[in-house]
Amino acid sequence: MRSLAERPVDPVVGLPVPHESAAAHVTGTALYTDDLAAGGRDVLHAWPVQAPHAHARLTALHTGPALGLPGVVRVLTAADVPGVNDSGTKQDEPLFPEEVMFHGQAVAWVLGESPEAARRGAETVGTEWEPRPALLTIAEAVEAGSFQGLRPTVRRGDAAAALESSPHRFGGEIEIGGQEHFYLETHASLATVDEAGQVFVQCSTQHPTETQEIVAHVLGLRSHEVTVQCLRMGGGFGGKEMQPHGFAAVAALGAVLTGRPVRLRLTRAQDMVLTGKRHPFHARWEAGFDDDGRLRALRATLTSDGGWSLDLSEPVLARALCHVDNAYWIPHVEVHGRVARTHKTSQTAFRGFGGPQGMLVVEEIMGRCAPLLGIDPAELRRRNLYAPGQSTPYGQPVRHAERLHAVWTELLERADVGRRRERIAAFNAAQDDRRRALAVTPVKFGISFNFTAFNQAGALVHVYKDGSVLLSHGGTEMGQGLHTKMRQVAATALGVPLAAVRLAPTRTDKVPNTSATAASSSSDLNGGAVKNACEQIRDRLAEVAARQLDIHPDDVRFAGGRVTGIGFSDRDIAFEDLAHDAWAQRVSLWAAGYHRTEGLHWDSSRMQGEPFKYFSYGAAVAEVEVDGWTGEHRLLRADIVHDVGDSLSPLIDVGQIEGGFVQGAGWLTLEDLRWDVSDGPHRGRLDTRSASTYKLPSFSEMPGEFHVHLFERATESGVVYGSKAVGEPPLMLALSVREALREAVAAFGPGGRSTALACPATPEAVYWALEEARRAAASGPAAPGAVRRG
User: Fold this and answer.
1) Please, are residues 86 and 218 in contact by the beta-carbon 8 Å criterion?
2) Is there a catalytic annotation at residue 764?
């Protein structure tokens, strides 16, 4: 708990305020990157020349036909790059490749007076190819020995010996599908060059600093010669952490070469074809349980599909390994990881950053083994929850583990699980062709970047003579409400009304060397920096106020736009008057704030340490209904209790929990990426490249009842105003939906049987699982070969 001295007076944090751009969003007045180019005079438009092969060498590129078309101004190729022809941080992503590594990869970009002129030009650019073999699945890559990057291992105890001595031993494997980000706003950049040669890039990016660095090295410039601004994004979900850099570099290169503004905005199909997804995974596992159903050992190999280049595959894999335990104590662990290299888009960050795939493995184990152990799946999960004093397989103590049990207990009570199970049993007994089931799953998710250096942030705060406040920080707004929270933090720290604080767009010439807005850490990091800057200004103002109030500066209090002293009821100063007085006395009214997360250490070579500041906890109950003839299913109700510490902004946090849960349910039950794996001319082509072929959650997939409760009395120490991160952890709560589907399918078959379920559990996948259950019912109970008993 914080001391009374640390508690803010009349805080703005904790108030349920609407999103700072909500009105602009719903009225259509909010501007996004591409809006800045709309109607702009002299703007050129970029269009890609895309490869028709998944793997081939480009032997010739003929730009003459395009340059002869009306409206085509230039064709950008590798020969035009003055710096480094690479858009990645590992130097393995050529911006203009000679060897294409996925179907649709851009080899050149046409600049036209209009999008239509650029498109026509791209269609007429001549290309000649030398096709090469392509690997499209994890299985093909494994067979060919095609891997990239590090192969980490998380190890504790002796998993092999513990498995041998376990009374109950099971094994299996699972394939986990990827996921398309499908942000509403596709990738967009607008680049200009001023009279001094300064390159200015407006970009829809979660990582302006890295975009700045990539643009600079492509152009052969230093970082101070490039400025990147992110006004706001229409969604990101991790897909705009690494992937925008190349598009920004193309626009900037075009602007430098032509002297004109260059706009690059991908169509929806282009965005889906050109950009990375959530990593598909394959996992092979063995688990040992004692007679009481407690996990004794886990041995597994996780293989991710990294696509053609590394991107963020290594840290994604590391986080998957760090979350393969989810919320469960496992004394003996040996989990190996590897990244397959395939000829597909370079897979990238996605909400949860490998955590969902790692957690799914252990939840698969729980769901498949519970019936073989003769234990209710929810009870099996409860028995294995971390207890106080235990630590993760990589050595980090699980602080506040008692909250896991408190969250679990509160959820079961709030969701009325006992009574609902009775109703579900009665419903199933009365139905021939439908079954209902509910499942309960927990979440323990580590908060901080695995790469320790990223756990820092900066902010710039100006107080003007009239008491108004202008705030800049290094985080980007993608609809998640970060800017709203930062305004609340600044208003609280300065003791002014929320309306007094305005937020400036995020840009690299205001706050340098920023980390990505990712890892659910942006409120922690940027909030700490904003608070630090405001406290510097507040301490200076306290000196001025103390002289006027004739008290010690430590006794000055700021709240509600008024400045007074402890115990005063008859004397105060308006904040705006104090600001003016401070200016007149030549007191600085601006400050650069900084924050670094303390107490972190991570040895990536040994996969040991304490990489996370804290763990976010939560649990969810999902109830589903399955049609036995078609496999169609409905999510009837979802109940969630989630620990966000002392919420900075409850409306924002509840919205993030709801959105994350639905996005997770989409990944697990609907969203099915399909590439052409035939040996025909379209091998490697992404077939699900639009909303008509890629199924997204809609209102019809929302639960009929949706209850979200923020866990109370949950102050976290060492973070901004006792709050916790909320962006990613709720996505994993949707594992309850998949587990409920598994139990509903099982209800069509005999008891004591392990039910296999594909991921994503689409209606088709559920149908085939139902067929297995029916066959088992007809022939008597028997565990399928995918799970073996020792």
Assistant:
1) yes
2) no
CB 533 within 8 A of CB 463: no
> How many Cα atoms occupy the beta-carbon half-sphere of 570 within 13 Å?
0
Q: Sheet holding 705-710: strands in order across?
A: 434-447, 614-627, 633-642, 705-710
- How far apart, in whole angstroms, are the C-alpha atoms of residue 371 and residue 391? 28
What CA–CA distance (Å, rounded) separates 353 from 364?
A: 19
Token couple for 373? 């152990």
In whole angstroms, give the CA distance from residue 587 to residue 543: 10
* Residue 625 near residue 744 (C-beta atoms within 8 A): yes
Q: How many residues does the chain have?
A: 790
Element (H, E) at 438: strand 434-447
Predicted confidence band of residue 393 (pLDDT cuts 50, 70, 90): very high
Residues near 205 by Cβ (< 8 Å), separated by ≥ 6? 211, 228, 230, 233, 240, 244, 245, 248, 476
* 377-384 and 355-373 helices, crossing angle to 10°: 120
DSSP H helices, 433-495, are 482-494
Predicted local confidence at residue 785, as pLDDT: 40
CA distance 123 to 47: 10
Per-residue pLDDT tens for 526-566? 999 999 999 999 999 999 999 999 999 999 999 999 999 99
Dist. CA 110–CA 45, nearest whole Å: 8
Tokens of 134: 């392509």
Residue identified by tokens 């990827």 is: 178
Q: How far is residue 123's CA from residue 115's CA, in Å, rounded to a whole number? A: 12
Nearest to 473 by CA among 513, 520, 433, 422: 513
Q: Which residues pair with 640 in a beta bridge?
A: 620, 708
Q: What is the pLDDT of residues 408-422, one digit of tens each?
A: 999 999 999 999 999
Q: For the sheet with 456-463, list strands across it.
A: 501-503, 469-473, 456-463, 590-596
Q: Which helix (H) or strand (E) holds 708?
A: strand 705-710
Q: Which two tokens mark 421? A: 């199970």
- Cα separation, 160 vs 777, in Å, equals 35
d(Cα 306, Cα 343) in Å, to the nearest integer? Answer: 9
- Name the residue type at position 549: L
Is 533 in contact with 592 (CB distance < 8 Å)? yes
**Structural element, H or E, at residue 156:** strand 153-156
Give the Cα separation of 15 and 557 in Å (integer): 20
Cα distances (Å, whole numbers) of residue 382 to 68, 159, 623, 638, 759 = 70, 22, 18, 19, 24
Q: Residue with structure tokens 């269609």?
A: 123
Helix runs in 691-728, H state only: none
Dihedral class, residue 435 (left if φ above 0, else alpha if ψ from -120 to 50, else beta): beta
Render pLDDT for 455-489 as a digit per residue (tens, 0 to 9).
999 999 999 999 999 999 999 999 999 999 999 99
- The residue from 625, 728, 739, 743 that is catalytic is 728
Write out pLDDT tens, residues 718-769: 999 999 999 999 999 999 999 999 999 999 999 999 999 999 999 999 999 9
Q: What residues does 503 pair with on adjacent strands?
A: 471
Considering only CA atoms, which of 94, 68, 65 is closest in space to residue 79?
A: 94
Cβ proximity of 667 and 352 under 8 Å: no
Residue appearing with tokens 């490039």: 226
Helix ranges, 648-707 (H): 650-669
Cβ-based neighbours of 164, under 8 Å, separated by 6 or more: none
Query: Residue 138: which H helix or E strand, with range?
Result: helix 138-144
Helix, strand or coil for residue 638?
strand
With contact defined as beta carbons under 8 Å apart, do 216 and 226 qualify? yes
**H/E/C letters for each residue in 349-366?**
CCCCCCHHHHHHHHHHHH
178: amino acid identity, one letter: G
